[in-house]
Design a protein that fits this description.
The chain is 36% helix and 23% strand. The protein is an alpha/beta fold and 400 residues long. Bound molecules: L-homoserine (HSE).
Length: 400
């Protein structure tokens, strides 16, 4: 029997407990061994819990118990979660987490500690919730050089944008509905300003290209400035607006960005609606591979965690394929040099727009909206100084 502990009995932590109890039979059958929960760490009282004897308040109880082999970290944040994760890895225990903030900011250091103590540090649940993303990348696509990664990585913003697209809601009205439906937090800043997506694309980029990416270097724009007019004009031109995390590698240089983008209807990413997420990897041999499913939620995220526990249970050691090294210096492409087509809305006259941007495509049925030719960010900035621009959104280019 494999003994585990869960640190943090919130939504996801309790989901892990429930899966390990509800699906104990199939898990044991597939693994050839049972998985038991010996402790649950939480500072709160759970007097009415059917297994209240499992609860402890001191992380040392878990760290010092030699029977516990695998510890789940579903505490969130980077203070206690960081301290306790280090403690467990140093005690030689493997750790499974859904904590994207911790993995994206401290992953490199935690992998090193895991390596020193021959323990695993696994994070399938940190990106794409229940969608298998990390192991397909590391295992099934291992024969490829990954050229690009992109995805709709945040359920809350995708729900809001879908409401704006399908029901013509304003951003504020759609956000309110997302909060009422329990999708968006009371303080939705990390979701709507793109921070949550930054953490997820930082993890995927580091894993795909092999070295750490500082979250702070990734230019990020959220969806707070997207208007219902933007959404309907984009729709008339054949595009859905999505908050995209994307990255690519060119030679030894990498780039990652989070921003809303116009995605053409013919691209499967445009059809990813509501709280669903999708991740697309572009491999040099396989081409584009898209993984789709529930990017958040209790059972979906806990499903990914239990999958990691079962993976570790078979091979409980540090596996360098699930880690990355230090950031390489001077390898991050200058955002000003990246190139896009741009969707814009402007009150300036057609002549002024043409004078500023040259050949543009005006959108039928939206007198103030047009799409430019491809140009660099720096060029677009400079040309844009000549006219009044109320909206500027990058256009996603489908590449194979
Ligand atoms: N707030 C996140 C989302 C939860 O909406 O996708 C999962 O990371």
């Amino acid at each position: 029997m494999i003994k585990t502990a869960v640190m943090g009995y919130g939504v996801v932590g309790s989901g892990v407990y429930e899966i390990l109890r509800k699906n104990a039979d199939v898990i044991a059958k597939r693994l050839g061994e049972e998985i038991d929960i010996k402790y649950i760490l939480d500072i709160r009282e759970f007097e009415n819990h059917p297994e209240k004897e499992l609860f402890v308040k001191d992380a040392n109880v878990i760290a010092e118990d030699k029977e516990v082999e695998i510890v789940v970290e579903t505490m969130g944040g980077v203070t206690f979660a960081y301290e306790f994760t280090k403690k467990m890895l140093m005690a030689g225990k493997s750790v499974v987490t859904s904590n994207k903030e911790l993995v994206s900011t401290k992953g490199t250091e935690l992998f090193e500690i895991a390596r020193e103590h021959n323990a695993a540090y696994m994070f399938e649940a940190a990106v794409g919730g229940g969608i298998p993303v990390i192991r397909p990348l590391v295992n099934c696509l291992a024969a490829n050089r990954i050229k690009a990664v992109c995805g709709i990585l945040n359920g809350t913003t995708n729900y809001i944008l879908t409401k704006m697209f399908k029901e013509n809601r304003s951003f504020d009205a759609a956000l309110k509905e997302a909060q009422e439906s329990g999708y968006a937090e009371k303080n939705p800043a990390a979701d709507v300003e793109g921070t949550d997506t930054v953490r997820k694309i930082a993890i995927l980029t580091a894993l795909a290209f092999g070295s750490n990416i500082d979250d702070n270097k990734i230019p990020a724009e959220g969806i707070t400035k997207i208007t219902s007019e933007d959404v309907s004009c984009a729709a008339k031109a054949g595009y859905a607006i999505k908050l995209m995390g994307s990255s690519f590698i060119e030679g030894d240089k990498v780039f990652a960005r989070v921003c809303p983008m116009l995605v053409p209807y013919e691209c499967p990413l445009a059809g990813v609606e509501d709280v669903f997420n999708a991740v697309q990897f572009t491999g040099d041999m396989v081409g584009n591979v898209m993984l789709y499913g529930r990017g958040a939620g209790k059972s979906a995220t806990a499903s990914a965690i239990v999958g990691d526990i079962m993976h570790i249970a078979k091979r409980n050691e540090f596996d360098p394929r699930f880690a990355w090294g230090e950031e390489r210096e001077n390898t991050f492409i200058d955002p000003a040099d990246t190139r896009y087509k741009y969707f814009m809305r402007s009150e300036s006259s057609e002549e002024e727009i043409k004078e500023a941007f040259g050949c543009v495509k005006f959108i039928e049925g939206c007198s103030d909206a047009f799409i430019t030719e491809e140009m660099s960010e720096a060029e677009c900035e400079k040309k844009g100084e000549k006219i009044d621009i109320s909206s500027k959104i990058r256009v996603y280019e489908v590449k194979e």
